[in-house]
């Protein structure tokens, strides 16, 4: 697994969203995409991050961005998450862990001395040509949308 860097072509993917519709990265060709990976629906940090993107969604759309969240939760979990927090963007169900693997965010974690595999919280900003323009490694869940803007300045 090669680590992705700024300037790399973003790995292609296709998976189902919270509505059971197939979504591919190629669907966003010609648009800027904020592709954010998060560990789990309905957990405090993930809720804060999703709500921050929701609260700033119109501003980000106005700046030409499309928002896409990815976790390994299934479509049903994503639908509940979307409904509970009134999320206006696509949530991709990567239950096969193909996308998290391609983007290098399926990593070993350590909680209370117990090691396990999980999704690292990371945001990729992909430009209109499908290249990675910026990578946010240390996501501030309370200010994730501002981090996107700061990463491009």
Automatic annotation (TrEMBL):
Recorded GO CC terms: cytoplasm
Enzyme Commission number(s) of this protein: 1.11.1.24
Pfam family, one: AhpC-TSA
Thioredoxin domain residues: 4-153
Gene Ontology BP annotations: cell redox homeostasis; cellular response to oxidative stress
Catalysed reactions, semicolon-separated: a hydroperoxide + [thioredoxin]-dithiol = an alcohol + [thioredoxin]-disulfide + H2O
Active site: 46
Entry annotated with the keyword Aminoacyl-tRNA synthetase: no
Any GO molecular function: thioredoxin peroxidase activity
CDD domains documented for this protein: PRX_BCP
Assigned protein family: Belongs to the peroxiredoxin family. BCP/PrxQ subfamily.
Name of the featured protein: thioredoxin-dependent peroxiredoxin
């Amino acid at each position: 697994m090669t680590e992705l860097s700024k300037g790399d072509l973003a790995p292609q993917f296709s998976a189902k969203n919270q509505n059971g519709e197939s979504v591919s990265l190629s669907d966003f060709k010609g648009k800027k995409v904020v592709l954010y990976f998060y560990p789990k629906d309905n957990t405090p940090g993930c809720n804060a991050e999703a709500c921050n993107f929701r609260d700033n969604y119109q501003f980000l759309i106005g700046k030409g961005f499309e928002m896409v969240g990815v976790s390994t939760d299934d479509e049903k979990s994503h639908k509940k998450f979307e409904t509970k927090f009134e999320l206006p963007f696509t949530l991709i169900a990567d239950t096969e862990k193909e996308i998290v693997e391609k983007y290098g965010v399926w990593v070993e974690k350590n909680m209370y001395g117990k090691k396990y595999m999980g999704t690292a919280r990371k945001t990729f900003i992909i430009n209109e040509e499908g290249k990675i323009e910026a990578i946010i490694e240390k996501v501030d869940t309370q200010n994730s949308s501002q981090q996107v803007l700061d990463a491009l300045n």
